[in-house]
Amino acid sequence: MTSAPDYSQGIDTERALKFAVQRIRGDRVQIIEGIIEPVSPTWDHERAAKLVRRQIERRVDELGCVEGSGNLDLPGSSNWYVPDIAVVPEDLARGGSALLPDQTLLIVEVTSESNAETDRVVKRRRYAEYGAPLYLLVDRVDGSITLFSEPQKLGYTRVQGPYPFGAVVRLPSPFDLDIDTSGLVRTTA
After folding, report:
1. Pick from 181, 184, 40: which is nearest to 115 by CA?
2. Is 86 exposed, middle or buried (0-12, 13-18, 19+ CB in 10 A)?
3. Confidence bin at 41 (pLDDT 50/70/90)
4. Are 184 and 138 in contact (CB under 8 A)?
5. For the residues of 75-90, what is the DSSP string, one character each?
6. Distance CA 162, CA 188 (A)
7. Burial class (CB in 10 A: 0-12, 13-18, 19+), 63
8. Which candidate, 187, 158, 159, 171, places its Cα nearest to that of 87?
9. Is pLDDT of 4 > 60?
10. Could you read off the pLDDT of 60-100 as tens digits, one per residue?
11. Distance, CA of 13 to CA of 188 (rounded, Å)
12. pTM for the model
């Protein structure tokens, strides 16, 4: 009788998990603290992301960057994120697959009822730990928007907000522009 192989020794589980996730066909997925989660936003979720994207597009182009929802790897952890919007330098986006949070200029996450706590707590902590300079949380569940900046290993040291939808939120340098949130709407349960 043959025994099952012992995979507990010599296997890089982080690498294996991330390799597998990149090969799932037909669906976009992310890994949150070791749990594979499909990325399937609703149209209202996409609408909220679009409202932010439209306001930053011109400045993103001026900065020689690209905005999109490409993969972000968090090496040394069991995390592989697909943000709603990430702004990255065009030279890194060209030919790139996964980038690191500290290679972004801005990350935007839009909450849904199914992932609000993940975006508010887990992703915020991990984005800070991995050096994402600006994290904009569009919280459709609470009807608020918060900007986190000045990342450290234990979290962001500067927080602006939460501001209610309808407020204007200033994105600092290198963006130096205001985000009008009057078009954003709170989700209803």
Report:
1. 40
2. buried
3. confident
4. yes
5. TTTTEEE--SEEEEEH
6. 19
7. middle
8. 171
9. no
10. 999 999 999 888 999 998 888 899 999 999 999 988 778 99
11. 39
12. 0.87
What six digits make up the tokens of 6?
């012992």
Q: E strands, 25-183, where?
A: 29-32, 35-38, 65-68, 72-74, 79-81, 85-89, 106-110, 134-139, 144-152, 155-164, 168-171, 177-180
**How many CA within 13 A on the CB side of residue 115?**
25
Q: Mean of the per-residue pLDDT values for the chain?
A: 87
Q: So what's the pLDDT on residue 187?
A: 82
The pLDDT score that the predictor gives to residue 3 is 52
Q: What token pair was written down for 37? A: 């989660």
Location of structure tokens 């994207």? 53
Residue 107 has pLDDT above 70, yes or no: yes
CA dist., res. 161 & res. 14, Å (int): 35
Task: Identify the residue whose tokens are 């200029």.
Answer: 105
Query: What are the Cα distances from residue 54, in Å, to 51, 98, 150, 168?
Result: 5, 24, 25, 15
Q: Name the residue type at position 94.
A: R
